[in-house]
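Help! Submission page says 'invalid entity' but I think these are all valid:
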Amino acid sequence: MTLAGWIFMIVSCVSITILTAYTYWKMLTKK
Amino acid sequence: MTKKKQTPRKPEASHRPREKWGTRMGVVLAMAANAIGIGNFLRFPVQCAQNGGGAFMIPYFVAFLLIGIPLMWIEWGIGRFGGKYGHGTTPGMFHYLWSHPAAKYIGAIGIFLPFGILIYYNYIVSWTLAYSAFSLTGKYLSVPDHHAMVEFLAAYQGRVHNEYFTGYMTPFIFLFITIGVMTWILSRGVVKGIETVAIWGVPVTFVIGALLVWRVATLGTPDPAYPDRSFLNGLGFMWNPDFSALKDSKVWLAATGQIFFTLSVGFGCIQTYASYLSEKDDVVLSGLATVSTNEFSEVLIGGFIAIPVTVAYFGVAETMQIAHSGSFDLGFNAMPLIFQKLPAGQIFGTLWFFLLFIAGLLSSIALAQPMMAFLQDEFKLSRRSAAVTVGGLCLFLAIPVVIFLRHGFLDEMDFWLGTFGVVLFAFVEIILFIWVFKPHNAWKEIQMGADIKIPRIFFFIMQYVTPAYLIILLGAWLSGDGMDILFMKNVQPENYPYIWFARFLMTAILFTLFFLVFVAWRQNKHRIQQRIPA
């Protein structure tokens, strides 16, 4: 696995995780 | 003589109010269940590995932002708008968007596509159930190699007869079970059926998926004689970027196609599910939560199972061949061979195929719901009668799909409905909602009750970028595969009658729906009014 491969994998996974966490957090904290 | 005690009568179907979702989490998970399908775990890793590895994620995210998210908000908006007028399907929704007699017939495509796709999709879902059972009973454990596994699948599908299977009895039994379960869930209604199953089913897919990712990630190098066959090299095969692929238009088309299939936009299902929302319910944040749940399942789970494990057992060269043979070869031929070698492979094999089954079944339910809603809303059928009608029709119409599989019947339906049809329908709905209904009305409709503000840039994207992108996509498919498929260039002459039969069947379903829409509008003339202009 190359460095570029790691970067693409981590950036893709982290950005999707942040989006998911943000939407669920917003939903759960919204009254 | 005593009078017989009178039990209170249930209200007539025509007087029953439309159902509404029970909870917000329920609607988000039901929508996510619609999107999460077999493709998340098989199609995505194959597309990624075939189209530039990590570099594939660039066009993938571009399509996600320019097509996936805008279309998803548009479909949620159209659905909630239609539900307000008592319509759960696009004929009614389009009728209120565009005061033209043709609108409702164009809307019929939004029932035709999901129902047509459902006819063959149920059959594919039934394979996953069958293979889950075969894993549990160890039926394929003695199959020696890849070639024999291909024969095993072909015999199961009835394409050949050999020592593994003869005839169509086994596939029909699993198809019957699949449609039976789907019908039962549909008959329980939106809250007790769809919502309850989604609340349980989506977390189950995540738990099983996480378990499989853990199993694959802890494999290391299964065979020390082949040090290059490892999980890490599998990740490398999947994620190492090949930037030259970005110059190839086919890679951009593949990424856009993947976004369409994975988010289930253009199918007509999101609108129906959204029609069960209340008028003031948010669609912006809920829609975003739905797509992010789907992406999480696709990239973080689907991307870490099938391809890495195949590389760990077969090496890069053979995985490349398998990936080029398509998703089904990976899922149904390569994976069973891996489960033969994997420690506790029988259990993990059962879980893998059960995961695919749950994901597929939840998508099947979403594909069936537009036809259910049409029968309930426009013909006032009870929930149970509608479910039995849809289930019965699915079973009956799936017969040629099963029997003529080897003649390309399923592939023909899949191209026109699942590839070309969904993009065409997405284009039509965006034109109607954004341009005919007027941009500011559409924007206002989507933002009503929103829990987060949509960045203004999406107003521009929805008006210009997404429609232009869809036209390019349609043109590219038509000028590429479309013409070859239309003129049957790659079809063996002996298969011509079967391809024509598939086309006849699709046309017959479409015209039947046109007729049903005509009848429904005649019957409900007093109820269906023109929209009061905003």
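Support: the input was valid. A stray whitespace character was the problem, and the output above is from the cleaned input. Chain B touches chain A at residues 24-25, 28, 53-55, 57, 61, 232-233, 235-236, 238-241, 285-286, 288-289, 292-293, 295-296, 299-300, 451-452 (CB under 8 Å).
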